[in-house]
Specification:
5 strands, alpha+beta
Length: about 190
């Protein structure tokens, strides 16, 4: 029996490869977490080699969140009870800075086969379509979907992505999904 998710949410994840935001912390906790991250960046705590990755090893409070039962119950419902933190990364998109993370498949970089890994995206501030929320192509996380994203894909915005998609027949079967999130929400993918 699932600990945190409904059977419908689990089926949606298995079909689409992501879940809509799930509340895992309070608004105040998200604000505190955001302030701590900004302070860690300003204080140089993340300026070590690889400081944007494996931040759960650099910042104990990040590890505390990553091992919080509210989050782990969601992940366990999707992957089972044998869990570990494989990778943790800070992607901080500053307001009006024009920063983005280009289209990609996490498993392309992790190389797990079978793909028994997922990413958890935590919104610390509101993420809207206008400000740059997470975007997914349902089903593209699974190689058998027929819509797998080539590793060479570099489209990073809607118009460029649309131009690229028109040249790739498999993409014509895919439907974009934007996932706006309030702060304190996480989106497993």
């Amino acid at each position: 029996m699932p600990k945190a998710l409904t059977e419908q949410q689990i089926e949606s994840y298995r079909r689409d490869g992501f879940l809509l935001p799930i509340r895992v912390m309070s608004e105040d906790a998200a604000a505190t977490f955001s302030e701590k991250l900004l302070a860690a960046r300003a204080d140089g705590q993340l300026r070590v080699k690889g400081g944007q990755t494996k931040i759960n090893l650099l910042l104990p409070w990040v590890h505390e969140f990553a091992t919080d039962d509210r989050l782990l119950d969601v992940v366990e419902d999707l992957l089972g009870p044998d869990l570990m933190i494989y990778h943790s990364t800070l992607w901080a998109k500053q307001p009006r800075a024009g920063e983005y993370v280009s289209w990609h498949q996490d498993n392309t970089y992790f190389g797990h086969d079978p793909c028994e890994v997922l990413s958890v995206w935590l919104a610390l501030t509101p993420a809207t379509v206008e400000t740059g929320c997470m975007q997914y192509l349902p089903g593209t996380g699974w190689a058998s979907s027929g819509c797998a994203i080539p590793t060479s894909m570099t489209a990073t915005c809607w118009p460029a992505a649309r131009r690229w998609i028109t040249t790739c027949p498999a993409w014509s079967r895919c439907r974009w999904s934007c996932v706006p999130a309030r702060s304190r929400s996480t989106t497993p993918s």
